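Supplementary Data S3. Sequence and structure tokens for construct A.
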Amino acid sequence: MENVMENELRKVSGELVLDKIKKWNYTYYENRKELLDYADVRNKNYVDIYLPLDLLRKQDPNLDKWLSNPPEIDSVHRTAKSPVYSPILIGNRFLAGLSLKDQVVDGYYRVLMAQRAGQDRVRAFVPEDSPLIDKAIRQLETERLSAGRQQVADKRFKGYHP
């Protein structure tokens, strides 16, 4: 899987994000139009990035609760909403009278499928001003440093003969 964070972050217009959602499933788009309008998708710019699932769960308590007891995945979600082909959408949501920032606006099933497939990240369109981008990059850098330290320790241990 290509990791967008290893290269320069790719920016995507809100218009392009909406066009992609329409192409994936126009009926779905029409049914979710109010939600997408509230998130003001059309007027924002996004970054195409892989977000850690644990970071998403911390950021979005509704997603975390849903993932704790998810419904069965039907054949439509299994094929048309593959986490590899269609990024989730992060933005503002209005739930229970509250305006919530940086929530999963579109993509609960793709997050679920990524989790079930053993992936630790999911591709996402994230508003370019979102702190989630910096958090994801910092987490990746920390993981890489930790992995590098482990490799060095492994090499030292392999070369150690008392």
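Construct B, processed identically:
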Amino acid sequence: MSTILLVDAQASRRKLAAMTLQQAGHRVVQGSRLRDAPELALRHAPELVLMGLEHPLADSLWALRCIKAHPATFELRLHALGARVRAVDEVCIRAAGFDGLMATPLDYRALQRYVDAALRTRHAARH
């Protein structure tokens, strides 16, 4: 069982994603405010962070930088959840420091596959 930190201001998307991941056997820690993401990451030591991209985008980038700057969390894999994503957006999001991007609205079966692949990639990178 992996611990996943899911931070998303959109409550309905967050709750459905959490339920999907819990049914797949993951422990899901939820947060609704990006400013809480660094503290939640420190407290719960997740294997993966899923973070909704919010406007202003600077809030998402601030949370990303805080998590990547701390010695206890800098190796965490951070994946963005974003609406209306174009190929150029994914390039920019990866350049900012995110490890991946999943477009919303979420297909919950695809979310489960995406998370499983991200966790496999994380584990392979550590060995």
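The domain at 3-126 is CATH 3.40.50.2300 (Rossmann fold). The mean pLDDT is 90.
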